[in-house]
Amino acid sequence: MESMHQCIIPGLPDDLALRCLAMVSHGYHGLLETVSKTWRDLLRSSDYANYKAREEWCGNWLFVLTEGSNNEWVAYDPEADRWHPLPKIPTVHGDWKHTGFSSISVCNQFFVIGGSYAQNDPPVPHKKPLITNEVMQFDPFKKQWTSVASMITPRTHFACSVVSDKIYVAGGRNLSCTRGLALAEVYDPVANKYVPIFGTSNMSEN
């Protein structure tokens, strides 16, 4: 029987064709997927995502949380000059309004950290919001959200910065300390772990 293998790009070895397509900006993926079923399957495959990740070809994206759209994040790809929606963040809090969080990029990953959730129409008036320590990571290569290690302390409206590929969070407040937290911690994306700093080892359990 003749081989049924279909070349990714006729006239090119598949490894070179993969490299060519992997260099194309994410913003063009919707267009590329219309070329053929072979291209669509390739662009949606783990091989393609892993190749881009290995070469660190994720591009420079601008992430924006759109107002009034049920916590929908969108990303702007300057290379393609296009906006495209991200998958909805998987959360147990449904369509509750998410505020007071921090978002930051490090190691070619995008993180949404902490904050508070409040129901849009709470059944109990003046119900206190839920302040969380959860952290969600968006992988631009796999185009999916993943829950990673939670902060030690739930907090909202806090400072956040990256130093030497590690995420530092400090201050903010929560329901047990509404006047301000004198606590800070640092997250290592490689170890997927938060470590307390500035006396956080003496904090009380929540």
TrEMBL record:
InterPro entries: F-box-like_dom_sf, F-box_dom, Kelch-typ_b-propeller, Kelch_1, Kelch_2
Chain ranges of the F-box domain: 10-46
Superkingdom of this protein's organism: Eukaryota
Record flagged with keyword Repeat: yes
Pfam families attached to this UniProt entry: F-box, Kelch_1, Kelch_2
Keywords on record: Kelch repeat, Repeat
Listed name of the protein: F-box domain-containing protein
Organism: Malus baccata
